[in-house]
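Give me structure tokens for this 168-residue protein.
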Amino acid sequence: MRCIADTAQTPHTGYPLFRVTEDIFLRNFHPSDIPKISEIVEEALHEHYEPSLYISLSREWPDGYLVDVDSAGKVQGFLLGVAQVPGEARILMFAVDAAWRRRGVGGSLMSTFFQRCRQRQLRRVTLEVRVGNATAIRFYTKFGFTITDLLRGYYTDGENGYQMARYL
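Here you go.
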């Protein structure tokens, strides 16, 4: 059995991977991930962003932009975090393909992100979530996040959001 810190190369990706389970491998973002990430964002987050945004954000903190892939290299989910405030990380986007939800992908991404935050000596993680997304709010609560603020009209469609935070 391999631990999350073991690196493995698969012939399908060519990028360093961290094997989490038989079906879950994590690695850093690569621009070739954009089409699938965009698809996941539209389905899960109901948002559309220009491809250049993903690339520019990847430069902020490359180790904070995690992608989950299967053994064939197909993107299953991702977490995009930045560290723009001293001592704090912010999760800007986090979503898992519908076919891979409730299979450990989200938990693996979140746990690995927390490890990377600790390595960078960040003490707090924040994120925003739609008030109507009860599933995501339960997931974040399970990982120690609490609601800290109501963000009125936060999303492009006018839906309110919650800001959530947790200390590491």
